[in-house]
Design goal:
The chain is α+β, with helices and mostly antiparallel strands and about 90 residues long. It has one domain: 2-Layer Sandwich (Alpha-Beta Plaits), CATH 3.30.70.920. Helices cover about 35% and strands about 35% of the residues. A 4-stranded antiparallel β-sheet has the order 2-3-1-4. Strand 2 and strand 3 form a beta hairpin.
Length: about 90
């Protein structure tokens, strides 16, 4: 499983509409409205890196009102983190 996060800046009057559209994307597992430099943070889960890229490029970035995005791709999966914790617990 590939995990990605997208930091989104959007037009303020369209925030709630954009959040609704983001929540309708199947691969989006969480949407957070935040304060600060960005307006929204999105958590994405896909089977492979190509699918993750497609969701970001063809679904998220195409939403009207989004003015900029920064994509972060997780280097480790939840399973590898758990495995590492278990190995060091002994």
């Amino acid at each position: 499983m590939k995990v990605g996060y997208v930091l989104i800046t959007c037009e303020n009057d369209l925030e709630d509409n954009i959040i609704g559209k983001l929540k309708s994307i199947k691969q989006v597992t969480a949407v957070h409205k935040v304060l600060g430099m960005y307006n929204v943070i999105v958590d994405i889960r896909t089977d492979d890196i190509e699918s993750l890229r497609d969701v970001i490029v063809w679904k998220i970035k195409k939403i009207d009102g989004i003015t900029s995005t920064i994509s972060l791709i997780s280097h480790t999966s939840d399973a590898s983190i758990r495995e590492n914790i278990l190995q060091h617990a002994n």
